[in-house]
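User: Thanks for the earlier help. One more: Glyoxalase. Can you show the sequence and predicted structure together?

Assistant: Of course, both are below.
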Amino acid sequence: MRVTASAISLNVADIAASAEFARRHLGFTEDMKLDEVVSMSRPDTGFQLVLLPTGLSTFRPTSMRGHDADGVLVVLVVDGIDDEYARIRSEGVPITTPIETEPWGERYFQVTDPNGVVFELVEWVTEPPGAPGEGS
């Protein structure tokens, strides 16, 4: 298999609110808007963030058509996590999970967009378990 692109598609009740949150606070840009569907990206993420209206008639699998994007974490690995935390707070974004460092070296915090999509910003302050070179 050769993967040529990747996307995360999320069902949300208010596409405009999620798109504005991703644009304003996370630096995504709108690449396509077709009816109510919005596709966004950042040149450094390697994926498209696609926002779909909950209940879209063409959504598959149909058993998930009416579900919202709850229980999903969109994780962005960043440099300068403490600076990002300060920036997000200064923009008035409510912090879902305050910044903390896990014993395995993951320093992170979480914010939630108006539709309940949780974005987690992470910086590895030590190499993650299983990283190349570990145990050498």
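User: Great, one quick takeaway?

Assistant: The mean pLDDT is 92.
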